[in-house]
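S.,

Sequence below, as promised.
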Amino acid sequence: MPAFTGAPQKVFISVDERTGRSTVSFWPADVGTPFQIEDDRKGDSALVEARSIASRYPGCTVDGPHFHTSKEGARRPRRRQQGGQPG
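The prediction came back faster than expected:
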């Protein structure tokens, strides 16, 4: 359970379908640090955690889980070689 600096109004759940990792975050964002749960492809564990957190704060709602697919490691652009064509 993360430490909170105030009462969250919403708890968000997002699940990365590529990695199988879920993320639980809060609104307003400065009330708590987001955390991740490994091997949670359906978001079930994150949903249990989010509901537990929301139950402690009257008026707090749970939003999600929302599913997305992250890109595999982004490719870095190749630098062009300097010097032009051989003469």
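The chain has a mean pLDDT of 89.

Coffee later?
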